[in-house]
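Annual report, structural modelling task.

Input specification for the zinc ion complex:
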Amino acid sequence: MAAGLKLYNTLTREKMAFEPIDKDNVRMYVCGPTVYDFAHIGNARPVIVFDVLFRLLRHIYGEDHVTYARNITDVDDKINARALRDYPDLPLNEAIAHVTRKTADQFHADVARLGCLEPTVEPRATDNIAQMISIIETLIAKGHAYVAAGEVLFDTRSMASYGQLSKRNLDEQQAGARIAVETHKKHPGDFVLWKLSSDNEPGWESPWGRGRPGWHIECSAMSRRYLGEIFDIHGGGLDLIFPHHENEIAQSCCANGTDVMANVWMHNGFVQVEGRKMSKSDGNFFTINELLEAETFGGRKWPGEVLRLAMLMTHYREPIDFSVKRLEEAERLLAKWPAMNIADFDPQTRPDPCVLEALHDDLNTVAAIQALHGLAGEAQANAEKRAVFAVSAALLGVLPQKAEVSDDLAAAVEALVAMRLEMLKAKNFAEADKIRDDLAAKGIQLKDGKDKETGERVTAWELKR
Ligand SMILES: [Zn+2]
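The model returned the following structure:
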C-alpha cells in the first residue's frame, strides 16, 4: 500500500495529506470550457491533469465513490459575438444554440482522443440560472451584494477574508493600475453577479430585470448543486486563481455561511508553445484539434496519446513548454511500451507500487512515467508484469492500445511475412527489406528471431497504432 495521498493546496501553499469529507463520495469540481471556439492546447492541460487525479481517486476510493463535476459555460459575451458572426440570419437563441452545441461536441471529441474519461456530471450554466438567481438573492439579503446601474455587484469589502486564495488584499487591488474605475461600483474590486441584457443579448427573467449571470456565479451555483456547499477539491488553471476562483469563494462562502468552499484548491501551471506564450499573432497558437488533425505543428499530425504523455512528462504545477521536440520524445517513449488492451487483464491486478507512490505524491507524473518505463521493459517478456504494466499505465491513461487485427489483415500480413522469409533465404535482401518497409508504413512491425528447436529464422509481427 502506497503512503497516503498528498496534494498541494493553493489555499495554504503547502502539500498536505488529503482527507476527503466523505470517503464514500469524494467530490471534485473543475472549471470547464466556455464553448465558443475550438479548445487550444493550453485548455487541454487541466482536462488531462484532473483526469489523472480522477483516475487516482477512483483507484483509491472506488469507482463509484468519486463525483467529478466539470461545467460547460454556455452563456458568455464571446458566445454571443460568435453566434452573430456565424449565423447572422438565425434568431439569436437558435444561433447561440448552434455555436454552443457544435463547440461542446468538438470539445468532447477532442478530449476523448486525449484519453480523458467523461466527468461524472457535466452541468451547463444555462440549466442552472434559477440556482444562480437564488444565490444572488441570498447575497443581497445578507448585505454582500448591491444593485447599481443595471448590475448586481458583489461587495468585496463586505467579506473580511476576501483575497484568501490569491493572497491579495483589497488595497493592493485598488492600487492596481489595470483596474479601470467604474463609478457605479462601491469598490473597484467589486464584480458582476448579474447584468441586464439588451434585446440582442440572451437573457432570463430575474428580480432585477431580464438579464444574464456573470461568469463567476455559474461555478458557485453548479458546484453547490452537484457537490454541496463544501466539497473536497476544486481545480483549474493557474490563471483562474484571480479573479475567478477568488470570487467563487467569496460568493459561495458568503451565501452559504461557510468558511471554505472547497478544502483543497489545485492549479496547473501555464502552457507555452515552442518557448513562447501562445498567441495567434505569433503563429504559435494551436488548438487540440489542429494538433490531432492538421499538419501544422512540426508538419505532421500527432496521436492523442502522444499529446497526453507529453503533457504528463512535466509535473502539473510546473510551466510546460509544448514543442515538437517534446512530442517526439513522448512518441519515442510510447513506441517502446507494449501495446495492449486493459480489458485483457484481471481488473484486480494491483498497479506497480512505484507508480502509485509517485502519483500519491501530489500527482508526480514525471516519476510515475519513469517507473512505468522501467516496468515496460520487464513487461515484454513476463505475463504477470504485463498485467501490472497495463493497470499502472491505465492509471495515467497512457496505455498504448493494441489495435484490432481483422482476419483478412492477419492473412495478408502472414503471406507477406512468409514471402519475405523466402526472399531472405534466397539472399534477395533488397526485396525483403522492401516488404518490411511497406509493412512498417502500415504500422506493422516485424521482429526476427530463431526457432528454439529448429534454429530456423522466424518472424513475429505486431500492429502498432
Ligand atoms: Zn469556475
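The radius of gyration is 26 Å.
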